[in-house]
Amino acid sequence: xxxxxxxxxxxxxxxxxxxxxxxxxxxxxxxxxxxxxxxxxxxxxxxxxxxxxxxxxxxxxxxxxxxxxxxxxxxxxxxxxxxxxxxxxxxxxxxxxxxxxxxxxxxxxxxxxxxxxxxxxxxxxxxxxxxxxxxxxxxxxxxxxxxxxxxxxxxxxx
Length: 158
What we know:
The protein is of the alpha/beta class. The protein is built from 3 helices and 7 strands. It has helices spanning 8-37, 46-70, 125-130, and strands at residues 4-7, 72-75, 91-96, 102-108, 119-121, 138-143, 146-156. It has a 5-stranded mixed beta sheet. Strand 3 and strand 4 form a beta hairpin.
């Protein structure tokens, strides 16, 4: 079975959500189903059907998180000896050469990528272009909108 890279931070976040679902949400929804059953006829009991639907969503999310974590190869970026090279988990400060705009990205696993948090997947075009490069290097990224040229300003392992 193939392992997927994940940062320690990403694994911790998924583990915390899994524990919350199991210890808080699952018991709460089980109680809501029991309470709704007491209200009589289940065919026309909207509270019961809503609680059962919520239970299904919670159980599906639990299974998904357990699957993600069981296939995760957890990498603690702070312990890597990358010697200035961009590797999985690195945080990279880039300068868009055309626009003079600076951006900061962290290269993470597929399951933890989030563009709003500037966490990009290891499989994204920009991450693939950056892996193995160092501060001062220039890279050309094949984006859907065309080529984008970046200069690597800083590489951090945090």
